[in-house]
Amino acid sequence: MSDRGSALARAGIHALPLYAPDAAACAIDLSDNTNLWGAPPAALRAVNELPASSLSRYPSLYSEPLRDALLRYAGVQAPGVGVVTGCGSDDILDSTMRAFGVPGESIAFCAPTFSMIPVLARLNGLVPVEIPFANGFDIDADRLVECNAKITYLCSPNNPTSTAISRAAAEHVVAHAKGIVLIDEAYAEFAPEVFVDLIARSEHVVVARTFSKAFGLAGLRVGYAVGSNEVVRLIERARGPYKVSSVAERAVLAVFSEGADGLEWVARHARLTMENRARFIGALRGLGLDPLESAANFVMVPTPRAPELQRALSARGILVRAFGGMRRDVPALSASNGAALRIGVGPWEEMMVPTLDALREALT
Ligand SMILES: *Cc1c(COP(=O)(O)O)cnc(C)c1O
Q1: From the CB of 87, is ligand 1 less than 6 Å away?
Q2: 159 lines ligand 1 (CB under 6 A)
Q3: Are strands 298-302 and 223-228 parallel, antiparallel or unpaired?
Q4: Whose CA is nearest to atom 12 of ligand 1?
Q5: Ligand 1: centre distance to CA 213 (Å)
Q6: What digits encode the pLDDT tens for the residues 238-264?
Q7: Per-residue b/e over 102-116, b at no fewer than 16 CB within 10 Å?
Q8: Largest CA-CA distance found in the chain, in angstroms, rounded
Q9: N or C end of the chain: smaller count of CB under 10 Å?
Q10: Pocket flag, ligand 1, residue 228 (CB < 6 Å)
Q11: CA atoms of 79 and 339, how far apart (whole Å)
Q12: pLDDT tens track for 223-239
C-alpha cells in the first residue's frame, strides 16, 4: 500500500484526534454523563412501534414537526425566535462555527471546557483561544470580550468541571461581545439557573441543548439550538438537510406528547439525579475528597491520584473518566496538579453505593 491517499489530506487533518474516551467495558459505566436510568418509556415505545416508512423514506428536511414542541419546552416562543436541530448538539456546535467563522478567525472560551470545542474549531479552520477560568470557575467575562473573537463559547453547567457560570458574567459577555455568543446548555435540566432568556437580549446569542443527557437519548443523536430566527436559519444552511433521522424524530415527539412516560419521566429523573448528586458529594467529602460544587449530572473530583483511582475503580467494574493535564490557573486544579475524576450520577443503591465502596477501599 502506498500512502498517496494520506498525502492528499487537507493540512491539519492528520493532527486532529479521534474521540477516544477510556474504553474498558465495565458493569457500571459512569463515564459519559448520559442518563443512567435509561431512556423515557415513551421513546422506547415509539421506536418499537415504528412504521416501515420510518426506515424506507427520508425524514423531514429540517425537523419541522419538532420545532413548536422544542420552542415551547425551551420556554422561548416569541415572534422572531427560531430553533434549529442537529445530529446531536455536536452537529449544532460544528454548524454554528461553519456558518459564522471565516477560516483564520477565532473562537474564545474559558478552559477546561468541552473537549470537542477545540477539535471542531480546527476542523472548521478556526483558531481556538483559551482563557483561564476566574476563581470559583466563573468565566472571566472581561478577558473573553477582549479576545474580540468571531464566536465566544460559554458552557454552563460546564463539562468537565460541572460548575455553573454567574448570570452577571454571562450578561456581560452578551452585552459586550461583538460576535456570536454560543451558550452550551447540554446540562440545563440539572442547573439552578439557565440562560436561554438571553436570546431576547441580543440577536447574536444562540443557546444549544441536547437530548443526550437528561432525556436519555444519546444513541438517537438529537440536539437543538434556539436564537433569533435569522441566526438559526443560517446555522441550518451550514448544517444541511436530513440530519435528524425519522426514528429520532418519532421518539422525541413521543416524549413531548406522552406526559408521565415522557417529559414527566425526564423531570422526575432529573430531580432524582440532583438529590443523589448532593448525597454523593456529601459522601465524597466524608472520604476526605474535595468535589467541586456541581450543577450537572456528574461530579468532578480534583485529586492528584486520579489515574490511580480510575484504575482501581475499573478493576472493580466501575468506569469513570480520569482527566489529567488540565489548566492549573484555578486553585482547585492547581492543588491537584491539573488532575481530576469525573463521575456520573445515577441510581443510588445500584451505582453510587458500589462506587463509594470502591473509592473507600482504594483510598485506604
Ligand atoms: C455531551 C455534551 C454535548 C453534546 O452532546 P450530543 O450528544 O452531541 O448532543 C454538548 N456539549 C456538552 C458540554 C456536552 O457535555
Answers
A1: no
A2: yes
A3: unpaired
A4: 186
A5: 8
A6: 999 999 999 999 999 999 999 999 999
A7: eeebbbbbbbbbbeb
A8: 59
A9: N
A10: no
A11: 46
A12: 999 999 999 999 999 99
